[in-house]
TrEMBL record:
Organism name: Bradyrhizobium stylosanthis
UniProt family annotation: Belongs to the small heat shock protein (HSP20) family.
Superkingdom of the source species: Bacteria
Coiled coil: none
Domain SHSP, chain residue ranges per copy: 28-138
Protein name (Swiss-Prot/TrEMBL): Molecular chaperone IbpA
InterPro entries tied to this protein: A-crystallin/Hsp20_dom, ACD_IbpA/B, HSP20-like_chaperone
Key words of the record: Stress response
Keyword presence, 4Fe-4S: no
Classification via CDD domains: ACD_IbpA-B_like
Length: 151
């Protein structure tokens, strides 16, 4: 048995539960490696996931986002009537999930050169951006937006 149960630690680790999620995900490395993919940072707030989907048409792939989880599923149609002398291109069904950080949205997806390219954008809402709070002598505080880039 190679799994570690982190659930007792969740009670005493307020705010650090994401660390345990990452540790559990690290245990699963190597379990599923198909299809291969790259995650690239284009700039401070833009990212791109490229997934190698050789042999799959766009209508055989489903891409959904639900509660910060991007799910990519592929189902290849039947190969009836086809005889392969060598079958080296993997066309098995798959399901791959990516956990998106808070405020990261999928901007679009396109198929180019055998890759599915998924564009992601991080947009922090104004209410979540850092604000400067001026300290005054009265009971009323003034809030102003900090002039800087988003964290």
């Amino acid at each position: 048995m190679r799994t570690v149960d982190f659930s007792p630690l969740f009670r005493s680790a307020i705010g650090f539960d994401r660390i345990f999620d990452l540790a559990e995900a690290a245990q699963r490395v190597g379990e599923e490696s198909y299809p291969p993919y790259n995650i690239e940072r284009l700039d401070e707030n833009r990212f791109q996931i490229s997934v190698a989907l050789a042999g799959f048409r766009p209508d055989e792939v489903d891409l959904t986002v639900e509660q910060n989880v991007l799910t990519l599923e592929g189902r290849k149609g039947d190969k009836e009537g086809r005889t392969f002398l060598h079958h080296g291109i993997s066309t098995r069904s798959f399901k791959r999930q990516f956990t998106l950080a808070d405020h990261v949205e999928v901007r679009g997806a396109r198929s180019e050169d055998g890759l599915l390219v998924i564009d992601l954008q991080r947009e922090i809402p104004e209410a979540k951006k850092p604000r400067r709070i001026t300290i005054g002598g009265s009971s009323q505080g003034n809030l102003t937006q900090i002039e800087s880039e988003a964290a």
